[in-house]
Amino acid sequence: MTAAPPPGDGQVGLVIDGREVRVPKGTLLLDAASEVGIHIPIYCAHPKMDPVAVCRMCLVQVEKLPKLQPACATVVSEGMVVDTQSDATAKAREGMLEFLLLNHPLDCPVCDRGGECDLQDFAFRYGPDTSRFPITEKVHFDKAVPLSDKIELDQERCILCWRCVRYYDEITGEKEIVLQQRGVHTAVATFDGQPLRSDYQGNLPEICPVGALTHRQYRFKARPWDLIRTKGVCPECSYGCNVFVDSRDFEVKRFASRDNPMVDDMWLCDRGRYSATSWNSTSRLRRPLVRDAAGGVRDVGVADAVKEAARRLLAVSERGGGEVIGVLGSPDCTNEEAWLLQRLAREVLRTPHIDHQLAEMLRLGPAEHALGIAEIESCTAVVVLGPEPEVNAPVLTLRLHKAATKRGVAVHRVAANAEPRDITARVGDARLVGVVADETNRARAAAVASALAGGGTAVKRMTVTRGGNGRGVKDMGLLPDLAPGYRPAVPAGMGGRAILESATSGSIQALLLLHAGGVLAGLGALVESALRIAKVVVVIDTKPGVLADAATVLIPGHSLMEKQGSVTNLEGRVQRIRAALPPATSVPSELRVLSMLAGALGAEGWGSGDLMEVHRALAADVPAYAAAGNGGRARWEVAAA
Amino acid sequence: MAEYKLLTQHIGADGLQTRAGYERLGGYQGLREVFRRFTPEQFIEQVKLSGLRGRGGAGFPTGTKWSFLPKDVFPRYLCCNADESEPACFKDRYLIDENPHQLIEGVLIAAYALQVHHAFIYIRGEYHDQRLLLERCVEEAGGAGYIGRNILGSGFDCEVIVHGGAGAYICGEETALIDSLEGYRGQPRLKPPFPALKGLYGKPTVVNNVETLSNLPHIVLRGGDWFKGIGTERSTGTRVWCVSGHIERPGCYEMENGRPIRELLEEEAGGVWQGRRLKAFQPGGGSMQVLLPEHLDLPLDMDAVMKAGSSLGAGAMMFMDETTCMVNVSMRLVDFYHHESCGKCVPCREGTYFESDLMHRLEAGTCKPEELATLSDICDNMNGKCFCPLGDTATWFVMSAYQAFREEFEAHCGAGGCPVRGGARTAALVGAS
Amino acid sequence: MTGRVLADDRRVDVALSEQTRVEISRQKERYPSARSAILPALWAVQHELGYLAPAGMEEVARILDLAPSEVQAVATFYSMYFQKPGGRHTVMVCVNVACALRGADDVVAYLERALGCPSGRTTADGMFTWQSTIECLGACGYAPMMQVDHRFYENLTPAKIDAILDRVAGEAGDDGHATMQAVAMPKAPPSVAPPPAEAEGPPSDARMPGTVKGESVPGQKRRRRGRPEGNDL
Ligand SMILES: Cc1cc2nc3c(=O)[nH]c(=O)nc-3n(C[C@H](O)[C@H](O)[C@H](O)COP(=O)(O)O)c2cc1C
Ligand code: SF4
Ligand code: FES
User: Fold this and answer.
1) Among A562, B351, C73, C103, which residue's beta carbon has the most beta carbons within 10 A?
2) Which chains sit next to B, with 3 or more Cβ pairs under 8 A?
3) Which domain holds residue C68?
4) Reduced to 3 states, what is the DSSP secondary structure of residue C188?
5) pTM for this structure?
6) ipTM score of the complex?
7) Both C100 and C169 in a single domain?
8) Pairwise CA distance, residues B347 & B336, whole Å
9) What is the pLDDT of residue A638?
10) Any ligand 2 atom below 6 A from CB of B341
């Protein structure tokens, strides 16, 4: 909240445990200590919440002050001399732990948080050896009350650090969990015991420093030390929240938050978090197969499948030219897959008919993605068009709440079809206005932006792309009118819907579908007739379904939990994903399969489809991606809105 | 006998609780005069000059507190602290019951000095009739032009809002009071920022005790210099002492600072009852350390009592005769803090619980001797480590009593019952059992 | 407020009379910020319903534009708000030190016999809920004391206690104090030290303010074990 200090000035020098530290003015003692690697135990302090200093675990000795000071709430000052290891400090810590354990059930062996519980950890490190409390009677609370279908509360384990209460107050603003009663009877609870309804409940067990709030889904599933952690990106929407994919026995057990202050700010939505176990589905395509004209199906090796695909595609294009082939990817593709797919289409198959979705989005441009997620906090005002942006990227709501409550940003939620004039009037004077819209409201967002800009205000737009890598596959040119990096595609081709319609009418004779199962699902008649009428249907996908059933050549693919590559979130942040599970099929990676296919189609110089090789080629083709590296934002020169 | 009676001089006069009755005895002259004689800054100087220190417990110099308000930040707020819940304290209730308009006049004078347009009187929920009385008086005062717009033609506007609490000792702590008044759970706030900078509704705020504010009309009329002449160098003016316990005439007595405590006990309160001997006393309310008969000659002076290891706190003197069991008294006080701990911080919430459990076993005589060391140790783990003074003070009486009456504590261990049996049962209810 | 507030579409059963709701709205106007009216609003609810029923808290939340959870968080913090229904009148006896030194334990023992139930309970006829409280009630100079509903009774003797209980019970049916506003101001303020000799209750025109048609009760749920109430000093 304090403004960034002016460079050169605004640093404060102090000594902690004999070590000199210089930190920006306004830094909390706790953070200054961790700068130099000094660990101070905490329960109530939380990096994303305002200090409350209630647990008193972080008390440290500050020279010249008669009382111990809470490091979590003490702002450093010049010349401060701090001792975090003095006898008084150690005794206070031991004392606090003794107090905390008075009413604790000591049920670590059956606690889900065993192994990742700060109470357990600190009790080992700083705690007293024996209990001196003869316990006439502990204060008893209800054990294991479900707060919803997702979260369970064990009040006896609760140490009243207030984190869950502050989470609902400061982070979501929903105030679902509050403190009730007083003194030793204080308990966290919901109004009249009603269930939680928030869309962000899954964060609770993660902020709880002990085992009071736990996931019902994850209950007794695994001990933390048995889990394998893989850094990943939540595939559920294009917001790109960073996660740890925690797996064990070849199954995803949970998604845990992996704080990226620029994106998720450590919060996940329940839709994303609890989608974790859906990746364990065993209903998968495992072996390539080829279908003959009579409908007979043959199991083949991948090399034969690729060869057969190439032969059939060549057969139709020799007669009708490349333009009889339609190519569809989807937001389920990685950037590398998308880039390679469009290259295969444009350079080898020589068809301009490429897309990743059915909705027609012509002349996309980088201007609609200028506003970064964290940048929302530095806007004067933000206009959100309709509910769709927050429905499709739920964690955005939390960023907007933070911007509004902690940074004083005026957040205007308006109907998607509100008159630009009215919106301008409502926003009034502003230095920088963010305009946030779903990609289906591009046109309205553009109108609003230009109305605002017409009044002389600086405007930046954020477009919420649909689908996990919806933004990345657009950057990669899986579009009928745009090549990678938003360069015009010459000639321009047909979009997704037109491709299917043309397949129905016979002008498209072959379809190459990469991970398109998701975008085509639920389209019913159009897809069915396109698949039925097309002569060649090459499908690379992960799950059984209409596509697999209609494929003339079927090659199993890998799920997002089984592969490496990069994906791009809605603000253009390029983030790596890694394999958390072993592949469900022995078929090589999609990149390799596409490269084999190119080779079989007669193209030269395609290499082996090695990830790094493809990524380097992609970066050379799209310099914004080269600049973004891993984790940075891909930016294009944007003409003023 | 006390020479000076300021706040209580007219108490008992007919109709003092009405505006007309109060005016008849010179009431609201202070308000008239403050507008005429002083700019707000000048009056703050007068208060500084008077040496008036807060009567709410901490004894902070009032004028100095007022001058902490940042210049030019408005609105500002004034809260009169009438939450009075310190054990053995009942002077604020007495001043409200007997002379409510004096308080309202004091509030308005302070509001003028601080340029406050909304003044609150936060009164504890148990003082229901007192709240109604104050509300009626505020209405009366408003009707006479003492409250509202352009008060007495001075151009100064002020509203006075009487706000009732609902049973929580901690709401007497100034930041908890502010949270409670804002409509939150009345729990103390992290300081800094102090209320003077960010208090009620995030604005500069002054919290003053009922008695502190009741002094102001007198300071206006007779000057800071005059006030400074009463009492001692650093404890000026008079105080309304709440005298309770084993004495002949319990009640509120106004007496200037500096007189010996003995005078208060023997001359005003009629001495220890039933001809018994004094065993101990607590000079500042339930939070303060115990003192012994040898301390009776200490002057009623904050610094002198502080030096003797206790504090005059909110001016509540509780006397205990020779039959009193100090373990039982300690246990009741510990129970009080246990009951009133707001639960915000660990050492107070859990510590008072631990303390209380131990004290009950000690009183029942089932405690092991080595647990007395545990008691000291838990108190040490609480004292100075809590979020607000409540948790710290929860240890003060019991620790001082343990030091002064160690044998009595030790005699309780394993005694199977309280070994100190005696005449605490009162005349009042003889025959009841 | 930003964010999607969850409680907004929760409908409440209207539990409060028009009069109480008007009173809450009136309280809201008194403060620079509506939220400050929460304690007076809860008083109004308790005076009508006898305790803070969830539907009443929801109604307060609606009028003051808060989440119901926030109202309950506040309501349960203060010991004078009742979380459960109880007897018609509430009796509180202070047993803090100053009162204990002057016989509060005897009052407790006497009441236990006079009312026929232990502290924290309601009499069989539903007339009284009584409780010994360890919060000092500010009557130390006039100890021992008790509060019946909102009124102080001091310098107690057995005869006085009997008279007070009789009179209060006799008032059943016409206490007429559904809200604070209906409470008449006592003509004389409550007595102060030194104690008056007469053993009567408050002035005869003074009603028991505040409480309640139906029930009111010290509801603060104490999970702490029961304490032996009467220790000798
Ligand atoms: C736990 C606690 C309880 C307090 N209770 C009261 C109280 O009931 N009345 C009061 O005037 N001050 C009380 N105080 C002191 C106030 O915080 C504050 O210092 C005082 O109201 C300031 O007024 P003064 O400067 O006029 O004394 C309490 C302090 C603490 C820590
Ligand atoms: S010391 Fe802690 S728990 Fe006790 S009243 Fe103060 S803040 Fe609340
Ligand atoms: S971490 Fe500092 S008091 Fe809890």
Assistant:
1) B351
2) A, C
3) 2-77
4) coil
5) 0.91
6) 0.93
7) yes
8) 16
9) 58
10) yes
